[in-house]
Write a structure and sequence with these properties.
about 325 residues; Cyclin_N; 2 domains; mainly alpha; Cyclin; Cyclin A, domain 1
Length: about 325
């Protein structure tokens, strides 16, 4: 058995342990949505702004949101248990109070960075980002809640790690270095977009990565290329079947995130003449992720991400695009041997 397949097997075992610690014996399919979907989309985008600003790996957002999801699921089960036993619930309302929810998000991100040894973001920085609506005491208290609520004896296998192994399974005879990097970057782009949808947090990262990988292959590979052996290995080691529904959802996220030029909104000649030659979208759509570090921009306060301001927010500078689609997201260029 080659090293790539062994690595995949180890990741699958880590995934099994991680999901067991998160969901236990509960039937995941019966779980209802516990996030406010608008809040989730906005804070995930905010997290990407922050990690880009401090030049950290974007994969850390996946880990931070995993911590957040696990913590909120514990909180949700506690509330349900108290309601069943007619017990009064004291403390913070993470699922219904926007301030408590934001504090949990910021704290999860801070814990993730600290666990990785990254010290460029401090509690004081988070307080400033919240426009002082959240105090350092709030962050420290929520941090204690998160630490004591979760199990920390297992690694978090991210979808990006599975994607890396899947790309490594591709034959060097069929795919050169540049092709593998392009496939990997496209796969990671879809994974980043999927984090904003809570449903994907209940989906095994190995499956999310596989379906994103399949979409990337269809984008960069001829249908005549035989990849049956790669698919057989992935299916055998992960135990998954392909999900066209999942693939289509990822494709939808990707299509919405692309910047298109010369979009004909009103197909009337007189209206067409009024339009500029080159069009590009601003940050109106919450699914658009930053594809570059925010080197010329400040970290946006989390308070600016609310229902009223998010769709009014414009990018400081909107460059006309020379191609139909925007470039793939910023990820560290990876060598595949």
């Amino acid at each position: 058995m080659n090293s790539d397949r062994l690595l995949l097997r180890r990741l699958v075992e880590q995934e099994r342990i991680s999901r067991q610690n998160t969901f236990g014996s509960h039937d995941i399919k019966k779980w209802s949505s516990i996030h406010n979907p608008v809040w989730r989309q906005m804070v995930v985008e905010w997290c990407y702004h922050v990690v880009d600003h401090i030049s950290a790996d974007r994969e850390l957002v996946y880990i931070a949101v995993n911590i957040l999801d696990r913590f909120l699921s514990v909180h949700f089960r506690t509330l349900a248990c108290n309601a069943k036993n007619n017990t009064k619930t004291d403390g913070r309302r993470y699922l219904t109070d926007k301030r408590d929810y934001e504090t949990a998000v910021m704290t999860a991100l801070l814990l993730t960075l600290k666990l990785q040894g990254i010290t460029s973001l401090s509690v004081e920085n988070l307080v400033q980002m919240s426009s002082n609506s959240v105090s350092s005491t709030d962050i420290l208290e929520v941090g204690q809640d998160i630490i004591h609520s979760l199990k920390w004896n297992s690694q978090i296998p991210t979808a990006a790690r599975f994607a890396h192994v899947y790309v490594q399974l591709l034959s060097d005879d069929l795919f050169d270095e540049d092709s593998k990097v392009a496939i990997f970057e496209s796969t990671v782009f879809q994974i980043e977009l999927s984090i904003q949808d809570e449903a994907f947090s209940y989906t095994p990262p190995s499956l999310v990565a596989w379906m994103a990988f399949e979409n990337a292959l269809s984008e960069f590979t001829s249908p005549l290329v035989d990849l049956s052996s790669v698919r057989h290995i992935i299916a055998k080691e992960t135990g998954h079947d392909q999900s066209m529904q999942l693939r289509e959802k990822l494709q939808h996220f990707q299509a919405r995130s692309f910047v298109r030029e010369n979009v004909n909104i009103i197909p009337l000649e007189e209206e067409e003449q009024k339009k500029p030659t080159n069009l590009c979208t601003s940050n109106d759509d919450v699914l658009i992720l930053k594809n570059r570090p925010l080197s010329k921009s400040h970290v946006i306060s989390i308070e600016t991400f609310d229902e009223n301001t998010e769709h009014k927010r414009k990018s400081e500078r909107c460059e006309p695009s020379n191609t139909t689609n925007q470039t793939l997201p910023r990820v560290k260029r990876t060598k595949f041997h």
